[in-house]
Design goal:
Elements (H helix, E strand, L loop, with lengths): L1 H18 L8 E9 L5 E8 L3 E4 L12 E4 L2 E5 L2 E7 L3 E2 L5 E4 L8 E7 L5 E9 L2 E4 L4 E3 L4 E4 L2 E8 L5 E10 L4 E11 L6
Antiparallel strand pairs: 1-2, 2-5, 3-4, 4-7, 5-6, 8-9, 9-10, 10-11, 10-12, 13-14, 14-15, 15-16
Length: about 200
C-alpha cells in the first residue's frame, strides 16, 4: 500500500512540474538568420515567442494578401541562443517577408529590418544590428515606401513616394552611427515619376 501511495505521489509531482514549466522554456522560434558585425563576425539571431498565434489571412489588406501566413504576438530577440533586451510586437508575415535584412559590405554591420505598412505609400520600419557583441536598434522608427538600400559604409538610402504635393520620390541618404544608434540625413534628392531605378 505504501509503495502504491509513493508511486502515485511521484507521478503527481512529475505531472505538476511539467504543467508549471516557465513560459520561457515553452518558446518557439519563428525567424532565424545570421547577422554580421562591422568586422565581419557572424552571429545567429532568432526571434522567439511564447504567445504568438498563427493566422491564415482570408482577406487582403495593406500588410498581407489572401492566404498569407501571419503570426501575432510578442517576439523576443535571441543572439547565439541568449535572450536579449530587444523585442517587437510587429505582426510577422512569413509569406510576405516583412522581416528582412539589408545587404551590406564589410565595415558596415548587417541591418535587420522589421516592417509594417501604414498606408499605401508609407511603411514603418525598425532597424537592428550588432555592435560590440550586442544587438542594438536605431532609436527612432523610419518610414519608407521602398525597402532601404545600402550605399556605402554606414550609409543607407530610403525612398518615400509623395502623391500629395507632387508625383515622385523623396530620397534621403542616412548616415548611421552604430555607437549612438542614431542617424543623420547627409543628402536628399527628388525623382519625378512612379517608377525609379532602385
Amino acid at each position: 500500500m505504501k509503495k502504491i501511495l509513493l508511486a502515485s505521489a511521484l507521478i503527481f509531482a512529475i505531472s505538476t512540474s511539467i504543467s508549471t514549466i516557465p513560459a520561457e522554456a515553452q518558446t518557439k522560434t519563428y525567424y532565424q538568420t545570421k547577422l554580421a558585425s562591422a568586422s565581419g563576425k557572424k552571429y545567429n539571431m532568432t526571434l522567439r515567442s511564447s504567445n504568438a498565434k498563427k493566422i491564415i489571412a482570408d482577406e487582403a489588406s495593406l500588410n498581407f494578401n489572401v492566404g498569407d501566413t501571419l503570426y501575432n504576438g510578442t517576439f523576443n530577440f535571441y543572439v547565439n541562443g541568449k535572450k536579449t533586451a530587444r523585442k517587437t510586437t510587429m505582426q510577422y508575415n512569413k509569406t510576405g517577408e516583412n522581416f528582412y535584412k539589408i545587404a551590406t559590405k564589410k565595415g558596415t554591420p548587417t541591418f535587420f529590418v522589421t516592417s509594417s505598412v501604414y498606408t499605401i505609400n508609407v511603411t514603418d520600419i525598425e532597424i537592428y544590428y550588432m555592435y560590440k557583441g550586442k544587438l542594438v536598434n536605431l532609436k527612432n522608427y523610419l518610414t519608407t515606401t521602398l525597402k532601404p538600400k545600402y550605399v556605402k559604409k554606414n550609409v543607407i538610402k530610403i525612398a518615400n513616394y509623395d502623391n500629395n504635393n507632387w508625383w515622385g520620390y523623396d530620397i534621403d541618404y542616412l548616415k548611421i552611427n552604430p555607437k549612438t544608434a542614431d542617424y543623420k540625413i547627409i543628402k536628399s534628392e527628388r525623382i519625378h515619376g512612379f517608377e525609379i531605378d532602385w
